[in-house]
Amino acid sequence: MIRVLIADDQHLVRAGLSALLGAEPGIEVAGVARDGTEALELARELVPDVACLDVRMPGRSGIDVAGELCAPGAQPQVPVLVLTTFGLDEYVFGALEAGVSGFLLKDSEPDVIVRAVRQVAAGQGTIDHTLTRRIMREFVQRRRLQPVTAQRAGDLLTPRELEILLLLAQGMSNDEIARTLVVEVSTVKSHLARMLPKLGVQSRLQAVVWAYQNHVVAVPGG
Question: 2-130 is classed in which CATH architecture?
């Protein structure tokens, strides 16, 4: 059962997401918050499998809350899916740098939102398809994320870790990577746990962005 926390300052949005996700088999709405402060408190109390956060909320923003829940060593560490009406670059980049696992616009189709929740719970990152190419290109141009160079990462990463990074960039989940490499899922998780700190990133999604930024993989469309 995937336990989800929903946080949004609009009642209709909270009710709609609760109805949508609560009706899905294998998904349970564990808690609902009206602002960022309440979201952080409930996340620490309930330890959900996924926290669905709005960006702009009273008290603390969704990005601030994500920074608390996704930081290395956070107790508890909760995967975050951001759902927002705003596709502004500052929110997208802020959310990614906070370590979120996914970023979707609220006008996404219901099945897209449900699939994103399942992907994040399974350890797979997701970004709204309308934003992906722009985000990747912007990160390549800004080079804002990590000071680690691709050459240095090549020295730091083992061949297996590099394999996993390339498969992550293809959008594979832990289960898919394990099947591709013919290893246990626990082995993939162990490699990820060692790889992310080497790159100086906090999440799988940041690792993928880092791979594009440093030309380890090509940006779609050139």
Answer: 3-Layer(aba) Sandwich (3.40)
Instruction: For domain 144-213, give the fold.
Output: Arc Repressor Mutant, subunit A (1.10.10)
How many CA atoms are closer than 13 Å to the CA of 123, on its beta-carbon side?
Answer: 14
- Count of alpha carbons within 13 Å of 113, Cβ hemisphere only? 25
Q: What is the pLDDT of residues 163-190, one digit of tens each?
A: 898 888 877 888 889 999 999 988 998 8
Report the distance separating Cα 163 and Cα 41, nearest Å: 38
Q: Where are the domains of the chain?
A: 2-130, 144-213
pLDDT digits (tens, 9 = 90+) for 103-158: 888 888 999 999 999 989 988 778 777 666 666 666 555 544 444 555 656 677 88
Query: Distance between terminal CA atoms of the chain?
Result: 40
Q: Which two tokens stand for residue 189?
A: 């998780």
Residue 200 has phi, psi (to 5 degrees) of 75, 25
Strands 102-105 and 126-127: parallel
**At 216, is the pLDDT very low, low, confident or very high (cuts 50, 70, 90)?**
confident
pTM score of the predicted model: 0.68
The type of residue at 15 is A
